[in-house]
């Protein structure tokens, strides 16, 4: 049994528009004492790769305007190489190290939420997981939000706000780009060996699946809170199991 009553790190992954941002918003709005009791989440800290990649889009636009080559993306907004997707995971690890360095008692009082989506087209979760640091893996639990490709597409269209393309809650992708990047994913493949643990770089990492086929994340309110509480309590049980095979 872990000594403190909260998760160290929750890796929150899913298809785009699956409900990750709504889950984060709900947890953040829950008072700290209630949050720790119901969800095993302490002071809230988030590391999301979307602001990082959006900065690359903006920088490339400036570089092109200045007459220089684009560094990260082509004219259609696709990365110039798969390695850049993995670079974002390395950046997440670096940001976590900065938190440990700069915030007193960070590991004792905070739960860090890591958030990203990955499709097969750019290496999938298998490639992304290979770039997570061993230090994070030893403290990590994974919450996967499960929706179909069709549901991801529907919600991606619904949340689009052309006035805020850089917004975490309101950004969207064109249908063709969403299909190319995210229609095929490898979650079922990486999780098929064990219903409770993934083995990543030799470390057993507990996981749980949040079924969002009925879009409870958009409904919000008590329905979302109750399902989130149930799923995270299950994850907490896995998290406190011995890690040796």
Structural write-up:
By secondary structure, the protein is α/β, with parallel strands linked by helices. The chain has one domain (9-239): Rossmann fold (3-Layer(aba) Sandwich). Helix content is 47%, strand content 16%. A hairpin with a 2-residue loop joins strand 5 and strand 6 (203-211). Helix 8 packs antiparallel against helix 9 (175-182). The radius of gyration is 18 Å and the shape is globular. Residues 166-170 have low confidence and may be disordered.
List the helices and strands and how they pair.
Layout: E1 9-14, H1 20-29, H2 32-39, E2 43-48, H3 50-65, H4 83-102, H5 106-109, E3 110-116, H6 124-129, H7 134-137, E4 140-146, H8 149-158, H9 175-182, H10 187-191, E5 197-200, E6 203-211, H11 216-219, H12 221-239
Parallel strand pairs: 1-3, 1-4, 2-3, 4-6
Antiparallel strand pairs: 5-6
Helix pairs in contact: 8-9
Largest pleated sheet: 6 strands, mixed
Number of helices: 12
Shape: globular
Mean pLDDT: 91
Question: What is the CATH third-level topology name?
Answer: Rossmann fold
Number of strands: 6
How many structural domains are formed by the residues?
Answer: 1
Strand/helix succession: EHHEHHHEHHEHHHEEHH
Query: What class, by secondary structure content?
Result: alpha/beta
Uncertain regions spanning at least 5 consecutive residues = 166-170
CATH class: Alpha Beta
């Amino acid at each position: 049994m872990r000594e403190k009553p909260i998760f160290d790190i929750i890796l929150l992954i899913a298809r785009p528009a699956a409900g990750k941002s709504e889950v984060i918003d709900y947890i953040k709005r829950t008072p700290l004492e209630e949050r720790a009791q119901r969800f095993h989440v302490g002071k809230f800290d988030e590391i999301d790769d979307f602001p990082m990649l959006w900065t690359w889009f903006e920088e490339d636009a400036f570089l092109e305007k200045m007459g220089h080559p684009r560094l990260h993306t082509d004219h259609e907004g696709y990365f110039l190489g798969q390695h850049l997707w993995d670079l974002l995971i390395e950046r997440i690890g670096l940001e976590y190290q900065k938190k440990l360095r700069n915030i007193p008692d960070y590991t004792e009082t905070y739960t860090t939420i890591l958030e990203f989506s990955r499709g097969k087209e750019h290496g999938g979760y298998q490639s992304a997981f290979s770039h997570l640091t061993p230090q994070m893996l030893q403290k990590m639990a994974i919450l996967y939000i499960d929706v179909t490709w069709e549901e991801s597409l529907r919600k991606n269209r619904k949340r689009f706000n052309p006035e805020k393309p850089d917004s975490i809650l309101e950004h969207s992708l064109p249908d063709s780009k969403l299909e190319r990047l995210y229609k095929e994913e490898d979650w079922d493949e990486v999780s098929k060996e064990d219903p409770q643990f993934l083995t990543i770089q030799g470390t057993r990492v507990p996981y749980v699946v949040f079924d969002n086929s009925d879009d409870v994340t958009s409904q919000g309110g008590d329905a979302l809170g109750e399902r989130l509480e149930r799923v995270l309590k299950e994850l907490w049980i896995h998290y406190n199991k011995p890690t040796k095979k």
